[in-house]
């Protein structure tokens, strides 16, 4: 429900507007009234309304000066003005300040609804966009305005959780390429840094704790397949609205600290009113996977040029990391040390950025420890022998073959892993091939191809159910498909042109 502030110096006019809102506008609720612009500004600061309905001519401060003051404060606030015929010049000036519409007095029900109904759609989009901005700021650790949090997250307490499929987001490529955000009947707010992640924020007033825990368990189960792993981080109890920013930061810190390649797990976090206190388990020591011994063993293998033993050492380290749930970030540090030793020994002249992107892809795409090992193996082998796959990198025919395969299998459970098996490629090399040809990463290409196909299907069959469209382009979850579709196109599937 959207909050309304009514400003008019005539009590009868205020009562008339309030009555029409109560009778005809179930999505609006009058939270405050004021008798002049100065009082209106004070009520605006106190209540943070979504919409202002104001008279133009009033004593002390008129409606136009009030709008100027609100705009000067940095707020973009929808305003509907009430005016008489002789005040139209005021209205014309006000329109330059972004006033949504005006209503001529005396106000009729028809005139009022004609002005209000278009604003309702704008209000919904505004709330959606502001929540998304706040969520993004919370996720990346930016300071957020407490009043804005209170304005757009209005319940007193929330249950919260983050679910992530596979590894942590890329830090060098595709980061925040799209921002995912969606809402389910204004009760469940879902955000994410990319399409593999969901931050759930649910008002405690609409769901019980056990129900939320069950819901997150089901969501984790839906994302878990035979070729991936899923990490869920959940607050044990509901958190107060004024703690949202700290708690979101704490959830992501815990995700970054605890996510382990190949390990599906649910991590419960206690709320201790402070991000620095949300940790529930000390970080694993490098000694737990015998990192120092692995590096020493690598040096011995390099001296003997025993390449098979090099990969044995690498696999032992990755296998041990999975068995003790060693964090991805810690394993990345060791793998970079490992790769640097090999590169230095063979005096390799590989492009540094290309190497970093390939390592990042290896961790991002791996759904299992063995897949990570295979990708790292294909990267390391380039240091001492000519790579057999590199012959394919400059072949447009090979790229076209991959694209044709993707286009003809969009309705299938098509993943990076399945494509790599089909074409006998490592995941890192698949992304390298696409980047060599000036294209986006393969996962980005696959997502965009699915959305393009979905648009074509809806244009041909505008009456088709959204869930059926989702299935035809490889999405089993209609809600997830809608999030991706909206992030890519800027609109929901149901709002796509031709479906109304």
Description:
This protein is α/β, with parallel strands linked by helices. It contains 20 helices and 12 strands. The protein has helices at residues 11-24, 37-47, 63-72, 88-95, 109-140, 146-152, 209-223, 244-258, 291-304, 307-323, 328-345, 352-365, 369-380, 390-393, 396-408, 416-423, 427-436, 442-460, 466-472, 478-489, and strands at 2-7, 28-34, 51-55, 79-83, 101-104, 157-165, 180-184, 188-192, 197-203, 230-235, 239-240, 265-269. The strands form 2 sheets. Strands 6, 7, 8, 9, 10, 11 and 12 form a 7-stranded mixed β-sheet that branches. Helix 9 runs antiparallel to helix 10 (307-323) and helix 12 runs antiparallel to helix 13 (369-380).
List keywords for this structure.
500 residues, 20 helices, 52% helix, 5-stranded parallel sheet, alpha/beta, 7-stranded mixed sheet
- Main sheet specs: 7 strands, mixed
Average pLDDT, rounded to a whole number, is: 83
Structural class: alpha/beta
> Helix segment count?
20
Oligomer type: single chain
Shape: elongated
C-alpha Rg, in Å? 28 Å
> Strand portion, in percent?
5-15%
Q: Distance between termini?
A: 24 Å
Weakly predicted, low-confidence segments? 274-279, 387-391
In which range does the helix fraction lie? 40-55%
Number of strands: 12
Fold blueprint:
Blueprint: E1 2-7, H1 11-24, E2 28-34, H2 37-47, E3 51-55, H3 63-72, E4 79-83, H4 88-95, E5 101-104, H5 109-140, H6 146-152, E6 157-165, E7 180-184, E8 188-192, E9 197-203, H7 209-223, E10 230-235, E11 239-240, H8 244-258, E12 265-269, H9 291-304, H10 307-323, H11 328-345, H12 352-365, H13 369-380, H14 390-393, H15 396-408, H16 416-423, H17 427-436, H18 442-460, H19 466-472, H20 478-489
Parallel strand pairs: 1-2, 1-3, 3-4, 4-5, 10-12
Antiparallel strand pairs: 6-9, 6-10, 6-11, 7-8, 8-9
Helix pairs in contact: 2-3, 5-8, 9-10, 9-11, 10-13, 12-13, 12-17
């Amino acid at each position: 429900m959207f909050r309304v502030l009514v400003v008019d110096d005539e009590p009868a006019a205020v009562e008339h507007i309030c009555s029409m809102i109560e009778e005809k506008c179930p999505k609006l609720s009058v939270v405050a009234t004021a008798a002049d612009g100065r009082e209106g500004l004070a009520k605006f600061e106190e209540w943070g309304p979504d919409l202002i309905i104001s008279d133009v001519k009033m004593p002390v401060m008129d409606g136009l000066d009030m709008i100027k003051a609100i705009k000067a404060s940095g707020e973009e606030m929808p305003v509907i003005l009430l005016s008489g015929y002789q005040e139209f010049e005021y209205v014309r000036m006000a329109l330059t300040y972004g006033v949504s519409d005006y209503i001529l007095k005396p106000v009729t029900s028809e005139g009022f609804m004609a002005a209000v109904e278009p604003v309702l759609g704008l209000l919904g989009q505004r709330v959606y966009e502001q929540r998304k901005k706040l969520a993004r700021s919370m996720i990346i650790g930016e300071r957020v305005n407490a009043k804005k949090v209170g304005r757009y997250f209005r319940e007193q307490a929330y249950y919260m959780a983050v679910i992530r499929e596979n590894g942590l987001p890329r830090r060098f490529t595709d980061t925040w390429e799209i921002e995912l955000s969606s809402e389910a009947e204004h009760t469940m707010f879902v955000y994410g840094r990319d399409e593999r992640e969901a931050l759930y924020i649910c008002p405690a007033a609409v769901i019980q704790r056990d129900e939320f825990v069950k819901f997150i368990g089901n969501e984790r189960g839906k994302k878990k397949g035979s070729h991936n792993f899923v990490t869920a981080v959940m607050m044990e109890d509901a958190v107060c609205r004024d703690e949202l920013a700290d708690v979101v930061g704490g959830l992501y810190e815990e995700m970054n600290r605890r996510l382990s390649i190949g390990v599906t797990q649910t991590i419960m976090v206690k709320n201790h009113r402070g991000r620095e206190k949300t940790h529930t388990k000390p970080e694993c020591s490098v000694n737990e996977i015998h990192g120092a011994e692995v590096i020493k063993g690598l040096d011995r293998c390099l001296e003997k040029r025993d390449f098979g033993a090099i990969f044995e050492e690498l696999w032992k380290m990755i296998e041990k990391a999975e068995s003790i749930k060693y964090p991805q970030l810690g394993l990345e540090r060791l793998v970079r040390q490992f790769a640097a030793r090999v590169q230095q020994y063979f005096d390799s002249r590989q492009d540094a950025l290309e190497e970093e992107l390939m390592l990042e892809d290896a961790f991002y795409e791996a759904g299992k420890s063995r897949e990570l090992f295979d990708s790292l193996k294909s990267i390391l082998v380039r240091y001492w022998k000519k790579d057999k796959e590199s012959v394919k990198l400059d072949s447009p025919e090979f790229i076209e073959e991959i694209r044709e395969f993707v286009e003809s299998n969009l309705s299938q459970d098509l993943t990076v892993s399945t494509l790599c098996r089909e074409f006998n490629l490592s995941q890192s090399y698949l992304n390298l091939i696409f980047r060599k040809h000036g294209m986006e990463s393969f996962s980005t290409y696959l997502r965009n191809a699915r959305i393009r196909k979905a648009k074509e299907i809806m244009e041909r069959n505008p009456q088709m159910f959204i869930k059926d469209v989702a299935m035809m382009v490889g999405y089993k979850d209609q809600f997830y498909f809608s999030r991706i579709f909206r992030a890519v196109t800027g609109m929901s599937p149901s709002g796509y042109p031709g479906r109304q």
